[in-house]
């Protein structure tokens, strides 16, 4: 009878929080606009037949929409759901993620962006082939493709979880429907459709977040009340300088770890670097970076502060402890519906914005993956004329196939751990080694193919073992992270007044787990980069020769040019000239051969006649 009573109480509360017809109308309207944008660029706008037009928008994209598209892909449903939940459970230390993009901007602006812009590559993995050889490009492309086949279902799952919370709709059904909408406009519209839908969706999301933030602050009694409740529960914590790498959140783990996460995401990620190459000049690309950093800092702070507002509202009656939400990642949509009931349509816009940011991430990566799969795995097997004339057709097919595969993977994602830790375990094993390879190539002229390949593979193997062991220990309960206290003494229902104790989610990590497998997930990318650099540079140093020491200056960062010898530059210049002559002769021979075949065919027709 107690369980039945609890079920009735929870169900009545959820009925109170459900969508109205206005919410549904605005939700549907938002996605109809996204479809309209995709159809316009796919059917009514200028045709996108070439790789450059489909992937880079003809390199004529506007600065502000591109910057907004970048922000939308970072402000995914994962951020909107997991950041408030993180602050709600573990306090404000993770709020430092809002400031690490500033450190990232200096690295990207001075190290990676000038090189990519100089080479004018279609996908940034082409750099690895130019600097080293084809094998490294293939490895990087394979890792990126494999990682995102796992990551994209997480992106879809997060907002579907929220929609399930507020409407009761089947999680899997809504995930499939929304994904198909995204796949459609991404497939037919290319980068132009992706950028403009992202800009539209982000505008709505930011406006809705701002309204919810203001309403939430007023509803709980103002900023002073929010800060007071957070301090009482020991949630205000910024300067925990404990150097222990196994602690989940400290000043060092969050600031350093997330800085390397941002560098890998913005500097050496094909999906984001593609945006910087879609504008008309390096100066415009740098403006995109500045706008991106400013908007990202603002949006991350809003998301994090929302966690404190939510705690101030439920400090004495935690919805997670009493079963009104099944997972902590559902706490934000639950809160939004709770405070926004007096404003018709606000809940619908919020959930639409939540889905929109998730779909912007999905569309970004689908567009990028189509280019990588086509250029790195398919194009070389096609005749040159067909490869260029039919490029957009092939990439549209690839986009649709990868999108459908991601939809199928949703059923696996929900069986794994919390969203932030899941993202860390997915990206930590692969992103770090690849970031190390780019860094070696741009900053160390003596780095060669053998050394870089050894470094990447060694780092990848090591980090895969660490990630797998970590996830196993999470599954069996050996690794647990205690949360800040959660209370239920203020719940109004008679049932919950029986239990007025303070609850705490999780426990302590067992000391029996080996130190290496207890390291904070925030450090995974950093460790992968360090291992890749140490091993790669060591092997390169002991295997260097005169040939491997000749490096194309365009593949090095401009700051490194001063350290190159003049003989190196002259010799490399001569080699490049000879290679160019060889390619020209090869093209001439190829054209001559085609002309000879054409003449022979005409001659045969004349003889037959």
From TrEMBL:
Keyword entries, A-Z: Cell membrane, Glycoprotein, Ion transport, Membrane, Sodium, Sodium transport, Transmembrane, Transmembrane helix, Transport
Topological relation to the membrane, as annotated: Multi-pass membrane protein
Location(s) in or outside the cell: Cell membrane
Catalytic activity field: iodide(out) + 2 Na(+)(out) = iodide(in) + 2 Na(+)(in)
Cellular component terms per the entry's GO annotation: plasma membrane
Gene3D superfamilies attached to this UniProt entry: Sodium/glucose cotransporter
MF annotations from Gene Ontology: monoatomic ion transmembrane transporter activity; symporter activity
Domain of life the protein comes from: Eukaryota
Keyword ATP-binding: no
GO biological process: inorganic ion transmembrane transport; sodium ion transport
Main location class: membrane
TM spans (from-to): 21-42, 63-81, 93-117, 138-157, 169-188, 200-227, 247-267, 288-311, 349-374, 394-413, 419-444, 451-472, 521-542
NCBIfam families named in the record: sss
Family membership noted in the UniProt record: Belongs to the sodium:solute symporter (SSF) (TC 2.A.21) family.
Identification of the protein by name: Sodium-coupled monocarboxylate transporter 1
């Amino acid at each position: 009878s107690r369980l039945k009573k609890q079920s009735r109480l929870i169900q009545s509360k959820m009925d109170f929080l459900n969508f109205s017809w206005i919410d549904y109308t605005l939700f549907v309207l938002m996605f109809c606009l996204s479809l309209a944008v995709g159809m316009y660029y796919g059917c009514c706008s200028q045709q996108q037949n070439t790789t450059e037009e489909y992937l880079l928008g003809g390199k004529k994209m506007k600065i502000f929409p591109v910057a907004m598209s970048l922000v939308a892909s970072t402000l995914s449903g994962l951020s909107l759901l997991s950041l408030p939940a993180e602050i709600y459970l573990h306090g404000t230390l993770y709020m430092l993620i809002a400031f690490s993009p500033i450190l990232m901007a200096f690295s990207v602006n001075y190290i990676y962006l000038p090189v990519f812009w100089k080479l004018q590559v279609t996908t940034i993995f082409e750099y690895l082939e130019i600097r080293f050889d084809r094998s490294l490009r293939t490895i990087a492309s394979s890792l990126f493709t494999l990682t995102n086949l796992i990551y994209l279902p997480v992106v879809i799952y997060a907002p579907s979880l929220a929609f399930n919370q507020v409407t009761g709709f089947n999680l899997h059904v809504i995930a499939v429907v929304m994904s198909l909408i995204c796949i459609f406009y991404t497939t037919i519209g290319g980068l132009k459709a992706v950028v403009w839908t992202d800009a539209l969706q982000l505008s709505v999301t930011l406006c809705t977040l701002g309204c919810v933030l203001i309403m939430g602050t007023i509803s709980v009694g103002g900023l002073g009340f929010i800060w007071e409740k957070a301090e009482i529960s020991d949630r205000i914590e910024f300067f925990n300088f404990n150097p222990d790498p196994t602690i989940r959140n400290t000043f060092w783990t969050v600031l350093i770890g997330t800085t390397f996460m941002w560098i890998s995401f913005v500097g050496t990620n094909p999906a984001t670097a593609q945006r910087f190459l879609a504008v008309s000049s390096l100066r415009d690309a740098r403006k995109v970076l500045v706008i991106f950093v400013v908007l990202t800092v603002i949006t991350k702070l809003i998301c994090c502060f929302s966690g404190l507002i939510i705690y101030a509202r439920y400090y004495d009656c935690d919805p997670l402890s009493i079963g009104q939400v099944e997972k902590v990642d559902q706490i934000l949509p639950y809160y939004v519906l709770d405070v926004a009931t007096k404003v018709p349509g606000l809940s619908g816009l919020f959930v639409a914005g939540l889905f929109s940011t998730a779909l912007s991430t999905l569309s970004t990566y689908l567009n990028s993956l189509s280019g990588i799969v086509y250029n790195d795995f398919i194009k070389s097997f096609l005749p040159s004329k067909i490869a260029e004339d039919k490029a957009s057709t092939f990439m549209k097919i690839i986009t649709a196939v990868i999108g459908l595969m991601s939809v199928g993977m949703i059923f696996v994602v929900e069986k794994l751990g919390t969203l932030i830790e899941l993202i860390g375990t997915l990206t930590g094993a692969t992103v770090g080694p690849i970031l190390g390879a780019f860094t070696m190539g741009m900053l160390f002229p003596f780095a060669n193919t053998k050394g870089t390949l050894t470094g990447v593979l060694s780092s990848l193997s090591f980090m895969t073992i660490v990630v797998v062991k970590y996830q196993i220990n999470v599954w069996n309960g050996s690794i647990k992270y205690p949360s800040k206290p959660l209370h239920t003494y203020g719940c109004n229902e008679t049932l919950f007044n029986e239990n007025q104790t303070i609850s705490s989610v999780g426990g302590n990590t067992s000391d029996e787990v080996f130190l290496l497998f207890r390291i904070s997930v925030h450090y995974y990318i950093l460790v992968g980069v360090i291992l890749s650099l140490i091993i790669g540079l060591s092997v390169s140093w002991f295997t260097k020769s005169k040939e491997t020491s000749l490096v194309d200056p365009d593949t090095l960062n401009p700051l490194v040019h001063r350290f190159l010898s003049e003989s190196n530059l002259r010799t490399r210049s001569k080699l490049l000239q000879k290679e160019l002559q060889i390619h020209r002769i090869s093209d001439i021979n190829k054209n001559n051969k085609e002309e000879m075949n054409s003449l022979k065919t005409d001659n045969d027709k004349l003889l037959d006649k």
